[in-house]
């Protein structure tokens, strides 16, 4: 597939915009079946009711997500990711997004703690997988497998495939972050249907970055994720840079100011 190695780059202002979300823009790709995913600097919470621009955030999320998806691909876990194009953009396969957010929880935090009255930081007896219907107007309500199959969002077999992917991704991420002194509390994942001729398979899509993971420093308990923005704790960019530094993406001697993190080539 030569196009993977030699994509025809088109300047952003001349591309056809396919979709714009809160943190990313999708553009038409260089070949049929591909898209370009552009990472914005927007930080949002509570379904965009809270919104700021944080210079450099999109660059960090692009590189961290590239790192994670490359490892998933190498492990045989199917994803939409092909390659990173530049500091803000990735070449991805076009997929039919399943309208579900898949949340895998290892430690009680966030809405799970508030719903069930479990103290934040409590280790769960086992990892828990939850489904939320992707609908900003409804604040992404939690749904059951019964809802998913009844309304045709996914078939029982697709749910099984999604859950199997979620468990494998969780195992990988938990080990990856544990190795650099970070506890994976929970993460959100999206999946899509990748069509290859008449064949379809479920793949991991969207991104995996501190925007959709809860990451706590093992020693101090410091939050290294978007909770710093949600809870007005400050230091969001610095915490993302710390995650990138520990993963070996950010140079040790690189600047820590928003103007431009020095990233390893």
**Approximately what portion of the residues adopt beta-strand conformation?**
25-35%
Low-confidence stretches: 253-260
Main CATH class of the largest domain: Alpha Beta
CATH topology of the largest domain: D-amino Acid Aminotransferase, Chain A, domain 1
- Helix coverage percent of residues? 25-40%
Structural class: alpha+beta
> What Rg do the Cα atoms give?
18 Å
Task: Identify the CATH architecture of the largest domain.
Answer: 2-Layer Sandwich
Number of helices: 7
Q: Outline, from the CA principal axes?
A: globular
Structure write-up:
About 30% of the residues lie in helices and about 30% in strands. With about 260 residues, the protein is α+β, with helices and mostly antiparallel strands. It has 2 domains: about 1-95, Phosphorylase Kinase, domain 1 (2-Layer Sandwich), CATH 3.30.200.20; about 95-215, ATP-grasp fold, B domain (D-amino Acid Aminotransferase, Chain A, domain 1). Strands 8, 9, 10, 11, 12, 13 and 14 form a 7-stranded antiparallel sheet that branches. The longest helix has 23 residues, at about 155-180. The chain is globular, with a radius of gyration of 18 Å. The two termini are about 25 Å apart. The model is unreliable at about 255-260 (pLDDT under 50).
What's the quick description here?
By secondary structure, the protein is α+β, with helices and mostly antiparallel strands. The protein folds into two domains: 2-94, Phosphorylase Kinase, domain 1 (2-Layer Sandwich), CATH 3.30.200; 97-217, 2-Layer Sandwich (D-amino Acid Aminotransferase, Chain A, domain 1), CATH 3.30.470.20.
